[in-house]
UniProtKB/TrEMBL annotation:
Catalytic activity: hydroxymethylbilane = uroporphyrinogen III + H2O
Source taxon at top rank: Bacteria
MF GO annotations: uroporphyrinogen-III synthase activity
Name used for this protein in its record: Uroporphyrinogen-III synthase
Protein species of origin: Aquabacterium olei
GO biological process assignments: protoporphyrinogen IX biosynthetic process; uroporphyrinogen III biosynthetic process
PANTHER family, sorted: UROPORPHYRINOGEN-III SYNTHASE, CHLOROPLASTIC
One Pfam family matching this protein: HEM4
Domain Tetrapyrrole biosynthesis uroporphyrinogen III synthase, first and last residues per copy: 13-260
Similarity field: Belongs to the uroporphyrinogen-III synthase family.
Annotated CDD domains: HemD
Function per UniProt: Catalyzes cyclization of the linear tetrapyrrole, hydroxymethylbilane, to the macrocyclic uroporphyrinogen III.
Length: 266
């Protein structure tokens, strides 16, 4: 059975390489495209005012990538500012990207590696013991051209503790455009659902698949009840279930967990 990795690039290719190295048949079929913010000035302004912040929360590797891509040459990460991520993948990206500007591993807060999930709810116990009264926090996320989407729950927790929380659009998400190889892969998956399994790490990927990619190539929306999906969060599982996917396997969003889930299912 071929596993269809729907993460944005270059994450999709990296996951495919790791999954193949683990002995699985995997192929990249990105359902989300990432690009820089339409207006980079809020990110640049945040760099200039970084010393006034207690915490920057990076929601994904894409947030890390674009925040540091827009760093002014002279900007340095202050010792008084912490950084947070929802999971180890983003933390690894942050450590690599932040080191040249002075960010140390000791300043990065993330859920423990054994956490059942990697999300805001599991990050909060790490943040909650700190004093947030009067502190400034920025949440670096993605969305459309003007609005940051997601992480509202975490922002509410921080504001309830007295923090001033500002969302900053670090990157834009969209459906992107399939080329002929992706279209051919999608046709094969739709024609033979028993031989393919979708790997969803985002509810938005499901929406883009159904509302954008299939219509763009004049592909009929199938009866998803015959299709199989591997999902990395309970909320994504619920979204896939509402879309009609009939065979769902839920796992943690780590390479090891995904490999184990595939081998167990096989």
């Amino acid at each position: 059975m071929r596993l269809l990795v729907t993460r944005p690039q270059p994450q999709a290719d990296a996951w495919v390489a790791d999954l193949r190295a683990a002995g699985l048949d995997a192929a990249a079929l990105p359902l989300i495209a990432i690009e820089g913010p339409a207006d980079p000035e809020p990110v640049r302004a945040l760099w200039q005012g970084l010393a006034a912040h207690r915490l920057l929360m990076f929601v994904s590797p894409a947030a890390v990538q674009w925040f540091f891509a827009l760093r002014p040459t002279e900007a340095r990460w202050p010792a008084t500012c912490l950084a947070a991520t929802p999971g180890p993948g983003t933390a690894q990206s942050l450590q690599a990207a932040g080191a040249p500007s002075g960010l140390t591993p000791q300043q990065i807060l993330t859920p423990p590696s054994q956490a059942s999930q990697f999300d805001s709810e599991h990050l909060w116990p790490v943040l909650a013991p700190l004093d947030w009264a009067g502190q400034r926090v920025a949440i670096l996320g993605g969305g459309d051209q003007s609005d940051v989407k997601g992480r509202t729950w975490l922002a509410e927790q921080l504001r309830a503790r007295g923090a001033t929380v500002t969302p900053v659009l670090a990157y834009q998400r969209g459906p992107g455009t399939w080329q002929a190889p992706e279209q051919a892969l999608a046709r094969a998956a739709l024609a033979d659902p028993a031989a393919h399994q979708w790997l969803f790490s985002s509810s938005q990927a499901i929406d883009h698949l159904i509302a954008h990619h299939l219509p763009a190539w004049s592909l009929s929306v199938p009866d998803w009840a015959a299709h199989q999906a591997l999902v990395t969060h309970p909320k994504i599982a619920e979204h896939a279930r509402r879309a009609g996917f009939g065979h769902l396997v839920q796992t943690r969003p780590t390479l090891e967990a995904v490999v184990q889930a595939r081998r167990t299912a096989a």
